[in-house]
Design a protein that fits this description.
The chain is α/β, with parallel strands linked by helices and about 375 residues long. It has two domains: about 120 residues, Aspartate Aminotransferase, domain 1 (Alpha-Beta Complex); about 240 residues, Type I PLP-dependent aspartate aminotransferase-like (Major domain) (Aspartate Aminotransferase, domain 2, 3-Layer(aba) Sandwich). Helix 1 runs antiparallel to helix 8. The radius of gyration is 21 Å and the shape is globular. The protein starts with a strand and ends with a helix.
């Protein structure tokens, strides 16, 4: 049975040329990047070349890129690095959105335990955080606002520029988790107006276990792990050269492919959406009235659960949005934020396409999903 992979928002396969780029640094180029001999220098130069490639994708400067062990670590560094800083005072006020991934929501809860105050801004029913709602939560001691660029479940794109202008007018720092948007839409930091931005390697055809944090020059972070002075003193530990090289090459590919790939993915997503809606009149789309990532389709199948539907279609690799058991439905944070009813949320399935998705994949997946829905109903 051939698998149809429609879970690119969960993780992407490693692009073949990314794998080729990293392999020499697992074998022949094994030096410590901090060593002064030739093997060490080769690794150091490869890391700095990758830093240039990541910076180029973001329209940032070389020295504004900090490599991390993934998107979660980058998010933790951004939030804790600002809120735990001693100057002017420890703590203060943090604003996040109700749409955030646990990689933001959980560090925020931890900071709250330490004495920081955290406010959570909601979204409208289309899954968009409105700048006016953020403004209403800002306080004199607000240090940081963190709003994701694009939602991982329903794909809605947030109005970061408008939020950033509001933050800058009040001297409040602004961070975005861009793990889902990198490589799918433009993510130039000056256009977005952000002070910090998170990247996760495995969301853009690189390996798991590597990421990066863009930190605008002049933004002072307090490291939350301590050791040697790697990555400008913000991320101690010998650099993972092979994976950093892979991330750099993945960013290089993304920069070349973003516009063409975005158009192609949008065509595939719309093809799937059209086929499902034609066959299932009561089907609803989450975030369908808002700007969305070109690859993401979150749909609510009526009168069935997403888990049952995917169990009937083992060829399809996709995700549900809720855990549904007997008399209980546990909604994801995103589906709760857009105020889906438990009955609607039970039938939610996220279908996310990528570089290697074909029209044949879409047509076959639609046929299988429609057939499974009809049989369950």
């Amino acid at each position: 049975m051939r698998q149809i992979y429609l879970d690119y928002n969960a993780t992407t396969p490693i692009a073949p040329s990314v794998q080729e780029a990293m392999l020499p640094f697992l074998t022949e180029h094994y030096g410590n990047p901090s060593s002064s001999h030739s093997l060490g220098r080769a690794c150091h130069e490869a890391i700095e070349d990758s830093r240039d490639r990541v910076a180029a994708l973001l329209g940032a400067d070389h020295d504004e890129i900090i490599f991390t062990g993934g998107g979660t670590e980058a998010n933790n560094l951004a939030l804790k690095g600002i809120m735990m800083a001693r100057a002017p005072v420890f703590g203060g006020h943090l604003v996040i959105s109700a749409l955030e991934h646990p990689a933001i929501a959980e560090p925020a809860k931890y900071l709250e335990k330490l004495g920081c105050r955290v406010s959570v801004v909601g979204c409208n029913r289309n899954g968009v955080v409105e700048p006016e709602a953020v403004a209403a939560l800002l306080k004199p001691d607000t240090k940081l606002v963190s709003i994701m660029h694009a939602n991982n479940e329903i794909g809605t794109i947030q109005p970061l520029k408008a939020i950033s202008e509001m933050c800058r007018s009040r001297n409040i720092l602004f961070h975005t988790d861009a793990a889902q948007s990198i490589g799918k839409i433009r993510t130039y930091v000056e256009e977005l107006g952000v002070d910090m931005l998170t990247i996760a390697g495995h969301k853009l055809y690189g390996p798991k276990g590597v990421g990066a944090l863009y930190v605008r020059q002049g933004v002072a972070l307090e490291p939350y792990t301590h050791g040697a002075a790697h990555e400008s003193g913000l991320r101690p530990g010998t650099e993972n050269t092979a994976f950093i090289v892979a991330l750099g090459h993945a960013c290089f590919l993304a920069g070349k492919a973003v516009e063409d790939a975005s158009d192609r993915m949008a065509d595939l997503r719309d093809r799937m959406e059209r086929k499902l809606q034609e066959a299932i009149g009561e089907l609803t789309i989450n975030g369908g009235q808002a700007p969305r990532l070109p690859n993401t389709l979150s749909v609510n199948f009526p009168d069935v659960t997403g888990g049952e539907l995917l169990a009937r279609t083992p060829e399809i690799c996709a995700s549900t949005g809720s855990a549904c058991h007997a008399s209980m439905t546990k909604l994801s944070a995103t589906l709760a934020a857009i105020r889906l009813t438990p009955d609607q949320a039970c039938g939610t399935v996220r279908l996310s396409v990528g570089w290697y998705t074909s029209e044949e994949d879409i047509d076959r997946a639609a046929e299988l999903l429609i057939g499974a829905w009809e049989s369950l109903r």
